[in-house]
Amino acid sequence: MSQLLVKAKPHQIAPGVTRIHEVTRDNSILEYIEFKVLDLEAGSSYREELVQKECCIVGLTGKIDVFSEQKVFREIGTRESVFEKKPTDSVYLSNGQPFEVRAVTQARVALCYSFSDEKRPSMLIRAADNTVEKRGILNNQRLVHNILPDSELFANRLLVVEVFTESGNWSSYPPHKHDEDNLPHESLLEETYYHELNPKQGFVFQRVYTDDRLLDETMTVEHSNVVLVPRGYHPVGVPDGYTSYYLNVMAGPKRIWKFHNDPNHAWILERQGQ
Ligand SMILES: O=C[C@H](O)[C@@H](O)[C@H](O)CC(=O)O
Description:
This protein is 0% helix and 50% strand. The protein is mainly β and 274 residues long.
């Protein structure tokens, strides 16, 4: 199995709290990003101390309260399924503080981390604060909710976005990469994909590859899988009949999303939509 594909490993870590994913520097090939997905039963709590990490807590489904050092964020979350396709609430927490996530209802939560030693104010990112984009034409149309884009300046390194791609369409396409610290042409951002499929038995194909093909992995990705993108192009293809969801976390030395399209496929962008 590819070292870039991480399958869910449910593990109870506290009463009512099941860890679905835990991607860390120690167990992955990533340097800038760590990532967790947790399932919480109503009334259960997850506690953690952010030492030199910032965290964006995304209310994937259900409702949670978030208790940080300075603030309490109540009733975070807007949906019972990501496939309601409406933006959700998130909370940005800076480094150097403990926090608690308490489930108001049964909830699935994504904890998106990057390394940070510069304390910032904790912030509520309301669903209404997400900018929503319809990207692409023909068969590469997708819906994008920008949760923590580079235009929002209150995070040190983190970028967070969620993407919906319908049946028979491609996203992260034409293939692009952001693996060179070469601004203004390209930025260096590692990336994670947390995938969901509707219906759940579905799959997508994701390729992660470099120009020299020294890295060239094509994966069958199923519901609740994570894909790591340390470098390279990373397109996603969605089979007929299914809807794809993924949550992207990006981080690198500079918090700018400047990607470079694979020149072999950039012509895709020249076509006219019907
Ligand atoms: O680099 C960002 C990620 O690849 C996705 O968020 C991608 O941009 C989504 C898309 O444009 O299809």
